What does this fold into?
Amino acid sequence: MPVQTDAYAVKTAGTPLAPFSFERRDPVGDDVAIDIQFCGVCHSDLHTAYDEWGRTTFPCVPGHEIVGKVTAIGPDVTKFAVGDTVGVGCMVDSCGTCPSCDAGEEQYCEGSGFVGTYNSKDAKHGGHTLGGYSTHIVVKQDFVLAIGHDDADLAAVAPLLCAGITTYSPLRHWKVGPGSKVGIVGLGGLGHMGVKIAHAMGAEVYVFSTSPSKREDAKRLGATDLIVSGDDAEMQAHAGSFDFILNTVAAPHDLDRFLNLLKRDGTMTLVGVPAEPHPSPAVGNLIFRRRAIAGSLIGGIAETQEMLDFCKEHGITADIETIPMDAINEAYDRMLRSDVKYRFVIDMASLKAA
Ligand code: NAP
Ligand code: ZN
It folds into this structure.
């Protein structure tokens, strides 16, 4: 029997998030049913809820940093059992047969494209997917992650499912490690995970921020220092010195300021997805030092598991502020003001109680 699920949704464009309920399917085949304990609040949730990317289907239930307990499994499930602590990130399915899926890079699925945890067409089950601002979810086992952290840390583990993997994957891909000088642009949800993970990988890390008040936090998280991105003197002191810069900023800005700080053959990888484009960077800044601008999308399922295990081994979780479900609209307002240290996480018990 399909299960009635309580949630928060944007029901029609331009309205705030509000209580909503719908049915989740019963677990069949290789499905895992999960009671959601915590769900992180990603800036992508806000972009989608506010239809800033122009492709939101309503009603929209955001949320793709999900942790909880397995409550039921389909008959073909082999990897999980009832009671396991598990996570779900940004994807719940992909074609499984294209070269990217074969390579374990399901996020770049060239077949039908990956099925997002929310706001994706769900060809298999009908309608569109509804995410983790809800009491439970049903996901096929290949897109469910095993969580090894202690239960006491679960709320702070939730953001690893998106912010963690979105920073871990490019840091690994561009071979960050001991001897690398790495810059992280924007100390928000993604940025603060990027600092912790790059530091744990052995890199020398600097934060570029518009918020000088975050300097002590940046150092506590593992950065050598915070560079105020609007301060010419602070920026110039690092000209031509970075191997890799990970740019997490969710708004259009001047990329040249950061490109100038890369060494020869250095790369700046963009993971932030502003609603409006960045001003075009100057080609000269690229060609004279063979610098590159790249992009990166979350990470594959196997790499997400690797990241979770890496974080467990290195004692890494997110710095969070836990909120009740009904505080979500205020949390979005604060996220827009860069006023979050450093990730909001919804305690789903608040929704179950209400
Ligand atoms: P967030 O928590 O809001 O952090 C963004 C940070 O960017 C802010 O804390 C702020 O840091 C800085 N910032 C904000 N406005 C700025 C502006 N106008 N100019 C310069 N800096 C500004 O957001 P998030 O959850 O980390 O997400 C960041 C972006 O990544 C979003 O666009 C999101 O959609 C995208 N994203 C992409 C992927 C992917 O796979 N590529 C995955 C998840 C999210 P300071 O105060 O330090 O300046
Ligand atoms: Zn996200």
